[in-house]
Amino acid sequence: MNESNKESYPDDEIDLFELIATIWKGKWLIISVSVVAAGLSAYISLQIPNSYRVEVKIAPVEESSGGQMEGLMSQYGGLASLAGISLPSSGGSETDLLLEILKSREFISRFIEDEALGPRLLALSRYDQTSNKEYIDPQIFDPITSQWLRDVDPPKLAEPSEEELFNEFLDNFKIVKEKTSPLIVVSFEHRSPLLGFDILRRVIKRLDDYARKKDKTKSEQSINYLEKKLSETRLVEVEKVLYQMIESQTKTLMLAEVNVDYAFQIIDPPQVPEERISPKRALIVILSTLVGGMISVLIVLINSSVQRRKTATS
Q: What phi, psi does 53 have (nearest 5°)?
């Protein structure tokens, strides 16, 4: 039995030189499959439209008046309550809340409608980087008659719904809040970098205007409320607190009127990128060639093993 094991053991060993010889023997198959894989992957990658990513970096603007209002409420809230006065909540925008509003269906849907972005989101066929021009597919949307002509399966209609446009927008829209800094990166990825540039430039301004309008309305309501309570009280200390709160809300109104960047400061404005983010055509071709080569080597080795077994059994 020992002699039998000794005799069979060398047959089970992998002979490196024999392996190399087998691969060399099938070199034309390996080369052919690799070339076909490279050519096919190059053709497919060229059919994939370029995608560009546009980014804007913003940071929340600190609002000292809002913090002052909170401090006054915390310090004198008990005194005002004793006088029968319920103080209003502090003004000022909250960054997290505004970012959630920026991703909300209501905000984005109204933005898409007001800016007429539907055709550029769903019907854009290609982007010419040389002329910096977008081309709309006339079989999907007719720019002359402003009619949707796309052929879709029910329950979808030729004209896209608000939900469809919202989902398409959100699939390309990203908001990343830095953990170690107040920096916020807002990006939009699309086959047209011009569309991404227009969207980011306008959506940040729209959000800033929204925060400005909200705080102005809230401050005006707070001032009216405080002035009303001021006329109803005769306590000197409470009057002093109310005057300070009115002053704080007046500052908020002034900032809303004067500041260009009210809620967010643009640190790095959006730019139309020259380089695409995808597809990585060179990487696709290299990986496809390697995979094709490995598969062809495996085929050669399996075929060689089958031939040896047939020879051994015959």
A: -115, 125
Q: At a CB cut-off of 8 Å and minimum separation 6, what does 55 contact?
A: 185, 186, 187, 200, 268, 270
* Residues 228/86, Cβ–Cβ less than 8 Å: no
Each residue's pLDDT tens digit, 203-227: 999 999 998 888 888 888 888 887 8
pLDDT 10s digits, 193-202: 999 999 999 9
Within 10 Å of residue 172's Cβ, how many Cβ atoms?
Answer: 17
Note whether 293 and 28 are within 8 A (CB): no
- In the chain, what is the greatest distance between 2 CA atoms, to the nearest angstrom? 116
Q: What is the CA angle 67-68-71, rounded to 5?
A: 90
The answer to whether 118 touches 160, Cβ cutoff 8 Å, is yes
Contacts of 193 (CB under 8 A, 6+ apart): 52, 54, 127, 272, 273
Q: How far apart are CA 310 and CA 76, in angstroms?
A: 97
pTM of the model: 0.72
In this model, does residue 62 exceed pLDDT 80? Answer: no
Nearest to 200 by CA among 177, 214, 182, 184: 184
**141-142 and 147-148: which strand pairing?**
antiparallel
| Domains in the chain, CATH or no CATH each | 2-47+281-313 (no CATH), 52-96+104-114+172-268 (3.30.1890)
For residues 169-183, give the mean pLDDT.
91
Each residue of 114-173: pLDDT tens digit?
A: 999 999 999 999 898 888 899 999 999 998 999 999 988 888 899 999 999 999 999 999
As a whole number of angstroms, the distance between CA 12 and CA 27 comes to 24
Pair of tokens at residue 119 = 């055709």
Closest CA to 182 of 240, 107, 267, 248: 267
Q: What is the pLDDT of residue 75?
A: 46
| Mean pLDDT calculated for residue range 67-79 | 46
